[in-house]
Amino acid sequence: MPYIGFGNEKEVYLLGRVLRNREVGYATIDDSRFKNFKKMYKRFMTWEIPNIRITASFEGKQWTTMTDEEGYFEFQIKEYSFPKTDHSWRVFDLELVDQVLPKQGMVKTEANIFIPTKLVEYGIISDVDDTIVPTGATRFWEMIKTTFLGNAYSRIPFPGVAAFYQALAKGTDGKENNPLFYVSSSPWNLYDFLLELLVVHQIPKGPLMLRDLGLSRDQFIAGSHFDHKLNQVEKIFRLVPDIPFILIGDSGQYDPEIYLEVIKDFPGRVKRIYIRHVAEKRKEEVLQIQTTMLQLGVQMLLVSDTVEAAEDALAQRWIREVDVQKIIEEKSESEIKNP
Known about the structure:
single chain, 7-stranded mixed β-sheet, alpha/beta, Immunoglobulin-like, globular
C-alpha cells in the first residue's frame, strides 16, 4: 500500500506499508452502518508483513529498502535529479523482493509522487478533521461513532470546501498546478478511506500525512497530536522549499498554535492562515495567537464558513472570481441537500 509521495527536483520522500489484503474494497452510497463498521474493523485489524525488501524503480534507476516491524517502508531518495516540468506527477514502480507466501508470484504496484511544476504559485496545507469534514474531533465518542459507522459517501464535507480547494489548486491561471497537502492525526489505517473521501467529493488529491498507532514505534501513539502535525507540516516546508504556503485548519485541536510555530521556524513562507471557528471556548486563545501572528507579519483569519475564506483569497488575488462564484453555488446546494 504505497502512500502518495512528494519532493523536489533533488529529493523525494515516499512512505508505504505491506499488509495482508483484507479486501476492504470501495464504499457505495447504499452501504449500511454495519457494513461500514466491518470495513473499518478490517482497516484496524491489520496483518503486517515485517522485515522484507521493497524496490522502487524510476527511469531505469532502482532503490531498495526494508519494511519495519509494523510493515512500514520508507524511501528518502536524494541521489537523483528530478527536473521540474509542466507535469506534477511522477510514477514509481514498486515490487516486493522477498517471498512471503508459497507460489506468490510477482507482487507489484505503482506509487504516485508529487513534484511541484515550474508553474506553481503557492502550496496549500490543510487539516482534515473539522476543517474539511465535520468529525467532532474534540468530542471523543462522537468522533468514534462518526469514524466507524460512516463511509466516504455519508461523511459530507463542510459546504463549499471542494470548490474552494479546487479554486486554490487552480490559483490565478486556472491550471491546477498548486499542490495540496493534507496533515491529520488520524492513523495510517484510514489512509484509503480518506483518499476515497477526497475522490468521492471531488476535493483535489495530494499527499496525506497521517500518524501511526503502533505499539512498537517508540510508544503506543507515535508522538503527540501537536508534535506530529508540526513535524509533518515542517517536513513539507523543507521538501518543497521554493514556494509560499496557505495553511488551513480549525480552532478545535491546536492548529493555530502549530501554525504559529511554523511561522517562527520558516519566516516569510506563510501567505495566509484560514482557521474554521468550531470551538467557541477557545476563541480568546485563538485571537491572542492571531495578534502574535500579525506581529510576525502573517494574518490569520478566523472564519465561520468557506465563503469567508474564499472572498479573502479573491481580495488577495490568489484565486479567480469565477471560481468564487462556484464556491458560493456549491455551498448553497450543499446546505439545501444537507440542512
